[in-house]
Sequence to fold (124 residues):
Amino acid sequence: MTIQDMVDLLRAKVLCGEDKLETPVFSAFCSDLMSDVLAFVSDRTVLITGLVNPHVIRTADMLDLKCIVFCRGKVPTAAILEDAKDLGMTVISTRETAFTTCGRLYETGLKGVSITWPQEDKQT
Fold:
């Protein structure tokens, strides 16, 4: 799947990074908690969030993420978009909820991030 495929599927608006729409993506992660993003996400993952603040861009940059999807019609400020553009990110916005966004992407083949949990204590 490419970013352009996601734009079409989600009827999304491209806010920056129009020149990178043919970039392939391999997995997605949805969260408004940037600490969870840092804990579980790796590169080539699309971040889906409704959180609109500079921390989202900083977190995505730390993980070398190339695409952020803002759901629920959220649009970041011009300053946040400028930071994303300077870092080479594509930012899109969809009016869909996070749940619907994830569902549509999943049903078309985009996988979620695999999370490995530590062994549970097997005491009885």
About this structure: The radius of gyration is 15 Å. Helices lie at 3-10, 34-40, 54-62, 78-86, 98-107.
